[in-house]
Q: What sequence folds into this?
């Protein structure tokens, strides 16, 4: 990948990352009432976080070779923050899909709908929290060093 | 013709029975959503626990050989390994558990604990 493309992808990843962090908070807030139908919002949030993760996965091999060693050498604390951000991002992605699957099942409106709504609420709340922390950490890391 | 007619009848009766059960206030509610919900919730919890365990092993410098062989980049290898652990774990627990309703009721609390454990461990120990 060329440097220009990497830089563009990095910017897109950062912007979509913040967008998905906010988008994940939307179903989490709405699902305080577990029987509420928030499927459309959940689809959008889950797709956004998936797109963010896909961009991140595309960038990671080049970042790991080109930027991470320099970042760790210059500012070890920020390098460690980057590592933590990656783990939180992975967990946010998995929790978003867990919440989405629970919501998809809750659409059947049977006996389990309320419990599934509660499960989706916890999953989306966790995903939103982790995504916000990951996006904030990404901002700090990006301010220190990028492609 | 006869065979297909018999099948059609049995399918129709099966549907009727399901509708009767759903509308009944006496019959126990046994929906497939309950089992699938338990499988999804347990899968999510299992992923977090597996990822956390592999991360701690990585921090101690004791990566399992199987995980290392999965992908050249440790983050991706850990993700694939955790997903590979979580999927069958969720499916098996969902199939083995008898009282799905009870499990689905406690799963949000279990997932909350798993999330808290994950965040604290990643923040402090990774």
A:
């Amino acid at each position: 990948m060329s440097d220009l493309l990497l830089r563009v992808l990095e910017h897109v990843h950062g912007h979509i990352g913040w967008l998905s962090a906010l988008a994940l908070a939307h179903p989490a807030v709405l699902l305080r009432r577990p029987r509420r139908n928030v499927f459309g919002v959940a689809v959008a949030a889950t797709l956004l976080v998936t797109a963010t993760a896909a961009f991140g996965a595309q960038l990671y091999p080049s970042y790991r070779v080109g930027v991470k060693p320099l970042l760790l050498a210059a500012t070890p604390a920020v390098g460690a923050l980057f590592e933590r951000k990656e783990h939180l991002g992975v967990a946010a992605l998995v929790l978003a899909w867990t919440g989405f699957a629970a919501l998809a099942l809750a659409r059947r409106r049977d006996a389990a709908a309320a419990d599934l709504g509660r499960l989706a609420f916890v999953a989306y709340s966790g995903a939103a929290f982790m995504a916000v922390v990951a996006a904030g950490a990404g901002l700090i890391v990006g301010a220190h060093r990028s492609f | 013709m006869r065979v297909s007619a018999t099948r059609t009848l049995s399918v129709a009766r099966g549907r009727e029975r399901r509708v009767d059960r759903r509308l009944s206030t006496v019959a126990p509610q046994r929906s497939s959503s309950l089992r699938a919900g338990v499988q999804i919730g347990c899968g999510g919890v299992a992923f977090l626990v597996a990822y956390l365990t592999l991360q701690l092993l990585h921090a101690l410098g004791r990566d399992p050989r199987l995980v290392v062989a999965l992908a050249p980049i440790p983050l991706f290898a850990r993700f694939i390994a955790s997903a590979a652990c979580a999927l069958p774990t969720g499916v098996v627990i969902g199939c083995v558990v008898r009282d799905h309703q009870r499990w689905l009721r406690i799963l949000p609390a279990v997932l909350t604990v798993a999330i808290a454990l994950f965040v604290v461990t990643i923040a402090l120990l990774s």
